[in-house]
Amino acid sequence: MDMTVGGGKGGLVLALLSAIACSGSPTNPSAGAIVTFQVIDESFRVRLTTPQQIDAARQAQAGGAANIPTGRIVAGTEVNTGWSWHLEDVRFAEVTIELCQGRPSDVQREGTNFGGGRYCPLSAVVVRIDPQ
Question: Is pTM, for the whole model, over 0.90?
Answer without folding.
Answer: no
